[in-house]
Amino acid sequence: MTFIPWTAALKLGVPIIDEQHRVLVDLINALHAAISDAAGARDAIADILEGLLDYTHNHFIVEEVLFQKHGYPDADKHLSEHSGFTGKMMNWLTRFEDGEDVNLEVLDFLKDWLVHHICEEDRAYLPFMRAALAKEAMAA
Ligand SMILES: [Fe+2]
Ligand SMILES: [Fe+2]
Q1: Which ligand is nearest to the CA of 12?
Q2: Which ligand is nearest to the CA of 64?
Q3: One matching Pfam family, short form (predicted)?
């Protein structure tokens, strides 16, 4: 069974954001598969972890640039959620590179954090985000 199924609850209805969230879900699912595989090679896990950190960082920047440009009122709280998560991921990557394994507890945290963040924090910005993207499209 898929670790994080891509369900309707995760779709916010904003294509650019949904596409990016979908990639994050796919990467966490790939990490779960690599870790569950008894023969899971550390190289493969390292690649996925690095890819996940990179992509997460890029996705957060996409949201944050729009927050800043169009004045999202809850930006501070949202940014601190993003930076807390990025910090945790960097810490796991460093520990992994130092020889520690990524365990299922980490996977559960990634899943719970991402699902909660999309369904609560990101969902809360929807009216703002739709308006911001409409302004961007008009300016293009
Ligand atoms: Fe997001
Ligand atoms: Fe976010």
Answers
A1: 1
A2: 2
A3: Hemerythrin
Residues whose Cβ atom is located within 5 A of ion ligand 2: 63, 122
Instruction: Flag whether 76 is in a domain.
Output: yes
User: What pLDDT, in 10s, does the model give residues 4-22?
Assistant: 999 999 999 999 999 999 9
Torsion of CA 27, 46, 83, 87, to 10 degrees: 150
User: How many angstroms does the Cα of residue 137 sit away from the middle of ligand 2?
Assistant: 21
Q: Domain range for residue 51?
A: 13-139
What is residue 38's three-state secondary structure? coil
Count of structural domains, the chain? 1
